[in-house]
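User: Hey, my collaborator sent me this sequence without any context and asked if I could get a structure. I don't really work with proteins. Can you help?
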Amino acid sequence: MRTAGWLLAAMVLAANAHAENSLDTIIIDRGVDEPIRIAVVPFAIDVNSAANAATLNDLPNPSDIVAFDLARSGQFDPMAKENMLSFPARSSEVFYRDWRILKTAYLVIGRVEALQNDSMRVSFELYDVAGRRQLEAREYLIGVDQWRDAAHQIADIIYAEITGVRGAFSSKIIYVLAQNAGTPDARYRLEVADADGQRARTLFSSPQPILSASWAPDGKRVAYVSFETGRPSIILQDVDGPYREQLTSFRGINGSPVFSPNGQELAMVLSRDGDPEIFTMNLQTRKLRRITRHRAIDTEPSWSPDGERLIFTSDRGGRPQIYQVELATNFVERLTFVGDYNARARFLPGGQHLVFVHRREGVFHIAWQDLERDNILVLTQTNLDESPSLSPNGSMLIYATQYQGRGILGVVSIDGRVKYRLPSSVGDVREPAWSPFLENVVD
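Assistant: No problem. I've predicted the 3D structure and written it out in C-alpha coordinate form, which is a compact way to encode the shape of the chain:
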Protein backbone atom coordinates (compact mmCIF):
# COMPACT_ATOMS: atom_id res chain seq x y z
CA MET A 1 0.00 0.00 0.00
CA ARG A 2 1.31 3.47 -0.83
CA THR A 3 1.87 5.64 2.23
CA ALA A 4 2.96 9.05 0.92
CA GLY A 5 -0.61 10.30 0.68
CA TRP A 6 -1.42 9.21 4.23
CA LEU A 7 1.61 11.04 5.63
CA LEU A 8 0.73 14.14 3.63
CA ALA A 9 -2.82 14.11 4.96
CA ALA A 10 -1.72 13.88 8.58
CA MET A 11 0.78 16.70 8.16
CA VAL A 12 -1.68 18.94 6.33
CA LEU A 13 -4.31 18.83 9.04
CA ALA A 14 -1.78 19.22 11.86
CA ALA A 15 -0.40 22.32 10.15
CA ASN A 16 -3.82 23.86 9.64
CA ALA A 17 -5.42 23.07 13.01
CA HIS A 18 -5.71 26.62 14.28
CA ALA A 19 -9.28 26.52 15.64
CA GLU A 20 -9.25 26.36 19.43
CA ASN A 21 -11.67 23.44 19.69
CA SER A 22 -10.80 21.65 16.47
CA LEU A 23 -9.94 17.97 16.32
CA ASP A 24 -6.23 18.49 15.95
CA THR A 25 -4.64 15.51 14.19
CA ILE A 26 -5.91 12.93 11.77
CA ILE A 27 -4.02 9.65 11.75
CA ILE A 28 -4.84 7.36 8.85
CA ASP A 29 -4.44 3.76 9.97
CA ARG A 30 -5.39 2.03 6.75
CA GLY A 31 -6.30 2.79 3.14
CA VAL A 32 -7.16 0.82 0.04
CA ASP A 33 -4.38 -1.27 -1.49
CA GLU A 34 -4.26 0.68 -4.76
CA PRO A 35 -5.40 4.27 -4.14
CA ILE A 36 -5.85 6.56 -7.14
CA ARG A 37 -2.73 8.59 -7.82
CA ILE A 38 -3.65 12.29 -8.11
CA ALA A 39 -1.60 15.49 -8.19
CA VAL A 40 -3.21 18.55 -6.63
CA VAL A 41 -0.86 21.36 -7.61
CA PRO A 42 -0.58 24.33 -5.21
CA PHE A 43 -3.02 26.97 -6.45
CA ALA A 44 -1.41 30.13 -7.84
CA ILE A 45 -2.19 33.14 -5.63
CA ASP A 46 -2.57 36.51 -7.34
CA VAL A 47 -2.86 39.46 -4.93
CA ASN A 48 -3.38 43.12 -5.84
CA SER A 49 -2.80 44.79 -2.47
CA ALA A 50 -0.74 44.37 0.68
CA ALA A 51 -3.95 43.88 2.68
CA ASN A 52 -5.03 41.01 0.49
CA ALA A 53 -1.57 39.49 0.60
CA ALA A 54 -1.56 39.53 4.41
CA THR A 55 -5.00 37.90 4.53
CA LEU A 56 -4.10 35.17 2.05
CA ASN A 57 -0.78 34.43 3.73
CA ASP A 58 -2.70 33.44 6.88
CA LEU A 59 -4.81 30.88 4.99
CA PRO A 60 -3.84 27.38 3.85
CA ASN A 61 -3.49 26.94 0.12
CA PRO A 62 -6.76 25.46 -1.20
CA SER A 63 -4.74 22.60 -2.70
CA ASP A 64 -3.77 21.45 0.81
CA ILE A 65 -7.42 21.19 1.87
CA VAL A 66 -8.45 19.47 -1.37
CA ALA A 67 -5.57 16.97 -1.18
CA PHE A 68 -6.32 16.23 2.46
CA ASP A 69 -10.02 15.65 1.75
CA LEU A 70 -9.21 13.22 -1.04
CA ALA A 71 -6.57 11.43 1.06
CA ARG A 72 -8.87 10.88 4.03
CA SER A 73 -11.41 9.19 1.78
CA GLY A 74 -8.77 6.44 1.55
CA GLN A 75 -9.32 6.14 -2.19
CA PHE A 76 -6.75 8.69 -3.34
CA ASP A 77 -2.98 9.04 -2.96
CA PRO A 78 -2.17 12.75 -3.44
CA MET A 79 1.35 13.43 -4.66
CA ALA A 80 3.67 15.36 -2.36
CA LYS A 81 4.50 18.83 -3.67
CA GLU A 82 8.24 18.20 -3.58
CA ASN A 83 7.80 15.35 -6.09
CA MET A 84 6.11 17.50 -8.72
CA LEU A 85 8.08 18.44 -11.83
CA SER A 86 6.14 21.65 -12.46
CA PHE A 87 3.41 23.83 -10.96
CA PRO A 88 0.95 24.71 -13.72
CA ALA A 89 -1.86 27.13 -12.99
CA ARG A 90 -3.44 27.33 -16.45
CA SER A 91 -4.31 24.82 -19.14
CA SER A 92 -1.55 26.16 -21.41
CA GLU A 93 0.99 25.18 -18.75
CA VAL A 94 -0.13 21.55 -18.49
CA PHE A 95 2.25 19.05 -20.12
CA TYR A 96 0.74 15.58 -19.86
CA ARG A 97 4.11 13.89 -20.41
CA ASP A 98 5.44 15.25 -17.08
CA TRP A 99 2.53 13.75 -15.16
CA ARG A 100 2.60 10.42 -17.03
CA ILE A 101 6.27 10.05 -16.03
CA LEU A 102 5.15 10.45 -12.41
CA LYS A 103 2.44 7.81 -12.94
CA THR A 104 -0.27 10.30 -12.09
CA ALA A 105 -3.81 9.37 -13.12
CA TYR A 106 -5.40 12.78 -12.52
CA LEU A 107 -4.20 16.35 -12.22
CA VAL A 108 -5.81 19.33 -10.44
CA ILE A 109 -4.65 22.90 -10.97
CA GLY A 110 -6.12 26.15 -9.70
CA ARG A 111 -5.82 29.87 -9.14
CA VAL A 112 -6.90 32.41 -6.54
CA GLU A 113 -7.32 36.03 -7.63
CA ALA A 114 -7.80 38.67 -4.96
CA LEU A 115 -10.52 41.20 -5.83
CA GLN A 116 -11.89 44.32 -4.20
CA ASN A 117 -13.66 44.35 -0.80
CA ASP A 118 -11.79 41.27 0.45
CA SER A 119 -13.50 39.04 -2.10
CA MET A 120 -11.67 36.63 -4.38
CA ARG A 121 -12.11 34.43 -7.41
CA VAL A 122 -11.16 30.76 -6.97
CA SER A 123 -10.96 28.54 -10.04
CA PHE A 124 -9.82 24.98 -10.65
CA GLU A 125 -9.46 22.46 -13.47
CA LEU A 126 -9.39 18.65 -13.34
CA TYR A 127 -7.52 16.63 -15.98
CA ASP A 128 -7.44 12.97 -16.97
CA VAL A 129 -3.72 12.45 -17.63
CA ALA A 130 -3.96 9.19 -19.59
CA GLY A 131 -6.85 10.49 -21.68
CA ARG A 132 -5.14 13.87 -22.17
CA ARG A 133 -8.39 15.74 -21.57
CA GLN A 134 -9.98 18.20 -19.20
CA LEU A 135 -12.80 16.69 -17.12
CA GLU A 136 -14.00 19.72 -15.16
CA ALA A 137 -13.42 23.47 -14.83
CA ARG A 138 -15.22 25.83 -12.46
CA GLU A 139 -14.76 29.12 -10.66
CA TYR A 140 -16.30 30.72 -7.58
CA LEU A 141 -16.55 34.24 -6.18
CA ILE A 142 -16.12 33.97 -2.42
CA GLY A 143 -15.35 35.90 0.73
CA VAL A 144 -12.52 35.05 3.08
CA ASP A 145 -14.95 33.25 5.40
CA GLN A 146 -15.83 30.85 2.53
CA TRP A 147 -12.23 29.80 1.87
CA ARG A 148 -12.53 26.30 3.32
CA ASP A 149 -16.07 25.90 1.96
CA ALA A 150 -14.80 26.45 -1.58
CA ALA A 151 -11.96 23.94 -1.11
CA HIS A 152 -14.31 21.28 0.29
CA GLN A 153 -16.71 21.85 -2.59
CA ILE A 154 -13.89 21.44 -5.11
CA ALA A 155 -12.94 18.15 -3.44
CA ASP A 156 -16.58 17.02 -3.65
CA ILE A 157 -16.67 17.73 -7.38
CA ILE A 158 -13.38 15.91 -8.03
CA TYR A 159 -14.45 12.91 -5.96
CA ALA A 160 -17.79 12.65 -7.77
CA GLU A 161 -16.24 13.05 -11.23
CA ILE A 162 -13.68 10.29 -10.65
CA THR A 163 -15.61 7.79 -8.48
CA GLY A 164 -19.19 8.40 -9.60
CA VAL A 165 -20.23 8.84 -5.94
CA ARG A 166 -21.32 12.19 -4.52
CA GLY A 167 -18.65 13.66 -2.27
CA ALA A 168 -19.38 14.43 1.38
CA PHE A 169 -16.44 16.70 2.25
CA SER A 170 -18.72 19.75 2.53
CA SER A 171 -20.83 18.05 5.19
CA LYS A 172 -20.59 18.75 8.94
CA ILE A 173 -20.33 16.73 12.12
CA ILE A 174 -21.71 17.36 15.58
CA TYR A 175 -20.32 15.79 18.72
CA VAL A 176 -20.21 16.24 22.47
CA LEU A 177 -16.99 17.56 23.99
CA ALA A 178 -16.71 16.61 27.67
CA GLN A 179 -14.16 18.35 29.87
CA ASN A 180 -13.42 17.44 33.50
CA ALA A 181 -16.27 14.93 33.49
CA GLY A 182 -17.06 13.53 36.93
CA THR A 183 -15.67 16.58 38.74
CA PRO A 184 -17.28 19.79 40.08
CA ASP A 185 -15.70 21.59 37.11
CA ALA A 186 -17.38 19.39 34.49
CA ARG A 187 -18.38 21.08 31.25
CA TYR A 188 -20.19 19.61 28.26
CA ARG A 189 -20.37 21.31 24.88
CA LEU A 190 -22.32 20.39 21.79
CA GLU A 191 -19.94 21.23 18.95
CA VAL A 192 -20.47 21.52 15.20
CA ALA A 193 -17.50 21.34 12.85
CA ASP A 194 -16.51 20.66 9.27
CA ALA A 195 -16.27 16.96 8.46
CA ASP A 196 -12.46 17.24 8.76
CA GLY A 197 -12.80 18.59 12.31
CA GLN A 198 -11.94 22.19 11.46
CA ARG A 199 -13.87 25.38 12.36
CA ALA A 200 -15.49 23.87 15.44
CA ARG A 201 -17.99 26.07 17.25
CA THR A 202 -20.26 25.54 20.23
CA LEU A 203 -24.02 25.21 19.80
CA PHE A 204 -24.76 24.71 23.49
CA SER A 205 -22.74 24.46 26.68
CA SER A 206 -23.77 23.12 30.09
CA PRO A 207 -22.29 21.77 33.34
CA GLN A 208 -24.71 18.86 32.89
CA PRO A 209 -24.40 16.01 30.33
CA ILE A 210 -25.51 16.28 26.69
CA LEU A 211 -26.42 13.13 24.76
CA SER A 212 -27.74 11.66 21.50
CA ALA A 213 -27.52 14.54 19.05
CA SER A 214 -29.04 14.02 15.59
CA TRP A 215 -29.49 16.13 12.45
CA ALA A 216 -32.67 17.14 10.69
CA PRO A 217 -32.61 16.01 7.04
CA ASP A 218 -32.28 19.62 5.85
CA GLY A 219 -29.20 20.14 8.06
CA LYS A 220 -30.71 23.26 9.64
CA ARG A 221 -31.76 21.83 13.02
CA VAL A 222 -30.51 19.32 15.55
CA ALA A 223 -32.23 17.43 18.35
CA TYR A 224 -30.44 16.21 21.46
CA VAL A 225 -30.84 15.31 25.13
CA SER A 226 -29.84 17.83 27.79
CA PHE A 227 -29.75 17.41 31.57
CA GLU A 228 -29.61 21.18 32.17
CA THR A 229 -32.78 21.14 34.33
CA GLY A 230 -31.56 18.23 36.45
CA ARG A 231 -33.40 15.57 34.46
CA PRO A 232 -33.25 14.58 30.78
CA SER A 233 -35.11 16.73 28.26
CA ILE A 234 -35.27 16.53 24.46
CA ILE A 235 -34.20 19.80 22.85
CA LEU A 236 -34.79 21.07 19.30
CA GLN A 237 -32.35 23.75 18.16
CA ASP A 238 -31.35 25.68 15.04
CA VAL A 239 -27.77 25.16 13.87
CA ASP A 240 -27.38 28.76 12.63
CA GLY A 241 -30.09 30.63 14.50
CA PRO A 242 -31.42 31.56 17.92
CA TYR A 243 -34.33 29.10 18.00
CA ARG A 244 -34.13 26.55 20.84
CA GLU A 245 -37.08 24.66 22.30
CA GLN A 246 -37.59 21.98 24.94
CA LEU A 247 -39.84 19.34 23.36
CA THR A 248 -40.21 16.88 26.24
CA SER A 249 -39.41 16.75 29.92
CA PHE A 250 -41.52 13.88 31.23
CA ARG A 251 -40.71 12.02 34.39
CA GLY A 252 -38.14 9.32 33.70
CA ILE A 253 -36.35 8.81 30.38
CA ASN A 254 -36.53 11.35 27.57
CA GLY A 255 -33.94 10.11 25.12
CA SER A 256 -32.56 9.10 21.70
CA PRO A 257 -34.31 11.67 19.46
CA VAL A 258 -33.91 11.04 15.72
CA PHE A 259 -35.58 12.79 12.77
CA SER A 260 -37.69 10.99 10.20
CA PRO A 261 -36.41 11.13 6.60
CA ASN A 262 -38.96 13.84 5.71
CA GLY A 263 -38.15 15.88 8.83
CA GLN A 264 -41.76 15.96 9.98
CA GLU A 265 -41.47 13.55 12.89
CA LEU A 266 -39.07 12.72 15.68
CA ALA A 267 -38.67 9.21 17.08
CA MET A 268 -37.66 9.06 20.74
CA VAL A 269 -37.60 6.96 23.90
CA LEU A 270 -39.93 7.85 26.79
CA SER A 271 -40.63 6.01 30.04
CA ARG A 272 -43.50 8.24 31.11
CA ASP A 273 -45.83 5.20 31.12
CA GLY A 274 -43.42 2.99 33.08
CA ASP A 275 -41.11 0.95 30.82
CA PRO A 276 -38.88 2.64 28.23
CA GLU A 277 -40.81 2.56 24.95
CA ILE A 278 -40.42 3.97 21.43
CA PHE A 279 -42.60 6.97 20.55
CA THR A 280 -42.87 9.31 17.59
CA MET A 281 -43.75 13.00 17.76
CA ASN A 282 -45.34 15.01 14.96
CA LEU A 283 -43.21 18.18 14.96
CA GLN A 284 -46.07 20.30 13.64
CA THR A 285 -48.74 19.29 16.12
CA ARG A 286 -46.42 17.95 18.90
CA LYS A 287 -48.71 14.91 19.07
CA LEU A 288 -47.11 11.73 20.44
CA ARG A 289 -47.72 8.20 19.18
CA ARG A 290 -46.59 5.18 21.17
CA ILE A 291 -44.97 2.58 18.88
CA THR A 292 -43.81 -0.30 21.13
CA ARG A 293 -45.61 -1.97 24.03
CA HIS A 294 -43.43 -4.41 25.92
CA ARG A 295 -42.20 -4.87 29.46
CA ALA A 296 -38.59 -5.02 28.20
CA ILE A 297 -36.34 -2.01 27.56
CA ASP A 298 -36.91 -0.64 24.04
CA THR A 299 -34.49 2.12 23.08
CA GLU A 300 -32.24 3.70 20.40
CA PRO A 301 -34.72 4.06 17.51
CA SER A 302 -33.67 4.84 13.97
CA TRP A 303 -35.72 5.28 10.77
CA SER A 304 -35.61 3.24 7.59
CA PRO A 305 -34.74 5.31 4.49
CA ASP A 306 -38.38 5.19 3.31
CA GLY A 307 -39.70 6.30 6.71
CA GLU A 308 -42.02 3.28 6.96
CA ARG A 309 -40.10 1.35 9.62
CA LEU A 310 -38.14 1.91 12.79
CA ILE A 311 -35.29 -0.23 14.03
CA PHE A 312 -34.49 -0.21 17.73
CA THR A 313 -32.57 -1.96 20.49
CA SER A 314 -34.48 -4.23 22.87
CA ASP A 315 -33.61 -6.83 25.51
CA ARG A 316 -36.99 -8.54 25.11
CA GLY A 317 -35.12 -11.72 24.08
CA GLY A 318 -32.88 -11.62 27.15
CA ARG A 319 -29.94 -9.67 25.67
CA PRO A 320 -29.80 -6.42 23.66
CA GLN A 321 -30.55 -7.13 19.99
CA ILE A 322 -31.85 -5.17 16.99
CA TYR A 323 -35.55 -5.30 16.16
CA GLN A 324 -37.69 -3.72 13.47
CA VAL A 325 -41.25 -2.42 13.68
CA GLU A 326 -43.54 -1.65 10.73
CA LEU A 327 -45.20 1.67 11.52
CA ALA A 328 -48.36 0.90 9.52
CA THR A 329 -49.06 -2.38 11.37
CA ASN A 330 -46.84 -2.29 14.49
CA PHE A 331 -45.48 -5.71 13.44
CA VAL A 332 -42.17 -6.38 15.22
CA GLU A 333 -39.41 -8.74 14.08
CA ARG A 334 -35.89 -9.46 15.29
CA LEU A 335 -33.03 -8.62 12.87
CA THR A 336 -29.81 -9.69 14.64
CA PHE A 337 -28.96 -13.13 16.01
CA VAL A 338 -25.15 -13.33 15.97
CA GLY A 339 -23.49 -12.28 19.23
CA ASP A 340 -24.91 -11.60 22.67
CA TYR A 341 -25.02 -7.81 22.28
CA ASN A 342 -26.07 -5.71 19.27
CA ALA A 343 -27.26 -2.11 19.65
CA ARG A 344 -27.48 1.43 18.21
CA ALA A 345 -28.28 0.31 14.65
CA ARG A 346 -28.51 2.55 11.60
CA PHE A 347 -29.70 1.74 8.07
CA LEU A 348 -27.45 2.30 5.09
CA PRO A 349 -29.02 4.02 2.05
CA GLY A 350 -31.22 1.48 0.31
CA GLY A 351 -32.39 -0.12 3.56
CA GLN A 352 -30.77 -3.53 2.97
CA HIS A 353 -27.81 -3.18 5.33
CA LEU A 354 -27.23 -2.13 8.92
CA VAL A 355 -24.33 -0.78 10.95
CA PHE A 356 -24.44 -1.18 14.71
CA VAL A 357 -22.47 -1.71 17.92
CA HIS A 358 -21.54 -5.39 18.18
CA ARG A 359 -19.87 -7.11 21.13
CA ARG A 360 -17.41 -9.87 20.30
CA GLU A 361 -15.32 -11.67 22.95
CA GLY A 362 -16.26 -8.99 25.46
CA VAL A 363 -15.09 -6.07 23.27
CA PHE A 364 -17.39 -3.55 21.59
CA HIS A 365 -16.85 -2.97 17.86
CA ILE A 366 -18.78 -1.45 14.96
CA ALA A 367 -20.23 -4.08 12.61
CA TRP A 368 -22.04 -4.20 9.26
CA GLN A 369 -24.79 -6.67 8.39
CA ASP A 370 -26.47 -7.68 5.13
CA LEU A 371 -30.14 -8.19 6.06
CA GLU A 372 -30.74 -10.61 3.20
CA ARG A 373 -27.79 -12.90 3.94
CA ASP A 374 -27.42 -12.24 7.70
CA ASN A 375 -23.62 -12.15 7.36
CA ILE A 376 -21.74 -9.76 9.67
CA LEU A 377 -18.51 -7.86 8.95
CA VAL A 378 -16.69 -6.30 11.90
CA LEU A 379 -15.41 -2.90 10.72
CA THR A 380 -13.33 -1.70 13.69
CA GLN A 381 -10.64 -3.23 15.86
CA THR A 382 -10.39 -0.69 18.67
CA ASN A 383 -11.98 -1.00 22.12
CA LEU A 384 -15.25 0.48 23.35
CA ASP A 385 -16.45 1.55 19.90
CA GLU A 386 -19.91 3.14 20.00
CA SER A 387 -22.33 5.67 18.47
CA PRO A 388 -21.89 4.93 14.73
CA SER A 389 -23.17 7.58 12.32
CA LEU A 390 -23.08 7.34 8.52
CA SER A 391 -21.77 9.93 6.08
CA PRO A 392 -24.54 11.21 3.79
CA ASN A 393 -23.18 9.27 0.81
CA GLY A 394 -23.08 6.05 2.84
CA SER A 395 -19.40 5.39 2.12
CA MET A 396 -17.94 6.13 5.59
CA LEU A 397 -19.11 6.14 9.18
CA ILE A 398 -17.92 8.05 12.19
CA TYR A 399 -17.97 6.58 15.69
CA ALA A 400 -16.72 7.23 19.22
CA THR A 401 -13.90 5.15 20.66
CA GLN A 402 -11.09 5.22 23.22
CA TYR A 403 -7.44 5.91 22.45
CA GLN A 404 -4.72 6.32 25.07
CA GLY A 405 -7.29 6.75 27.82
CA ARG A 406 -9.48 9.42 26.25
CA GLY A 407 -12.48 9.63 23.98
CA ILE A 408 -11.80 10.30 20.32
CA LEU A 409 -13.63 9.97 17.03
CA GLY A 410 -12.81 7.28 14.51
CA VAL A 411 -13.86 7.03 10.87
CA VAL A 412 -14.06 3.80 8.87
CA SER A 413 -15.20 2.99 5.35
CA ILE A 414 -18.28 0.84 5.06
CA ASP A 415 -16.17 -2.07 3.78
CA GLY A 416 -13.64 -1.71 6.62
CA ARG A 417 -10.70 -1.06 4.28
CA VAL A 418 -10.09 2.60 5.19
CA LYS A 419 -9.67 3.84 8.76
CA TYR A 420 -8.56 7.06 10.41
CA ARG A 421 -8.97 8.72 13.78
CA LEU A 422 -9.39 12.28 14.95
CA PRO A 423 -7.91 12.70 18.46
CA SER A 424 -8.80 15.79 20.46
CA SER A 425 -6.40 17.70 22.68
CA VAL A 426 -9.14 19.54 24.59
CA GLY A 427 -11.20 16.78 26.25
CA ASP A 428 -13.14 13.59 25.62
CA VAL A 429 -15.04 13.57 22.34
CA ARG A 430 -18.16 11.41 22.15
CA GLU A 431 -21.63 11.00 20.60
CA PRO A 432 -20.80 12.00 16.98
CA ALA A 433 -23.38 12.50 14.25
CA TRP A 434 -22.66 13.14 10.56
CA SER A 435 -24.84 15.70 8.81
CA PRO A 436 -26.90 15.11 5.67
CA PHE A 437 -25.76 16.68 2.40
CA LEU A 438 -25.85 20.44 2.84
CA GLU A 439 -26.67 23.22 0.43
CA ASN A 440 -23.64 24.65 -1.35
CA VAL A 441 -22.51 27.86 0.34
CA VAL A 442 -20.42 28.96 -2.65
CA ASP A 443 -21.58 29.44 -6.26
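In plain terms: The longest strand covers residues 133-143. You can pass these C-alpha coordinates on to your collaborator as they are.
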